[in-house]
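Async update (no meeting this week)

Hi team, since we skipped the sync, here's where things stand on the single-chain job. The sequence we agreed to prioritize is pasted below, unchanged from the tracker. I ran it this morning and attached the output directly underneath so nobody has to dig for it. Comments welcome in thread, and please keep replies under the output.
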Amino acid sequence: MRRGIFIRHYLPELAGVPDSDIHQPHVWAEKHHKKLDYPAPIVDHKVARKKTLDAFERAKSAGLRASKEPE
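Output:
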């Protein structure tokens, strides 16, 4: 089964990006000195994940608990 068919259908600018790199095309482009006509990521997910986990840990340490019932 070919991977990336859906994304390449709607984003033809990613047509030359290999399947293994389709979710991080800018990393691939930089490594191979290619120029992409595709916007750069807005969020650095590694940084955002760390900030979120740190916030959860602070909340947990403060004794806050997530509510299971909507208010």
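Quick observations from my side:
The chain has two domains: 1-40, 41-70.
The first helix runs from residue 5 to 10.
Reply here if anything looks off.
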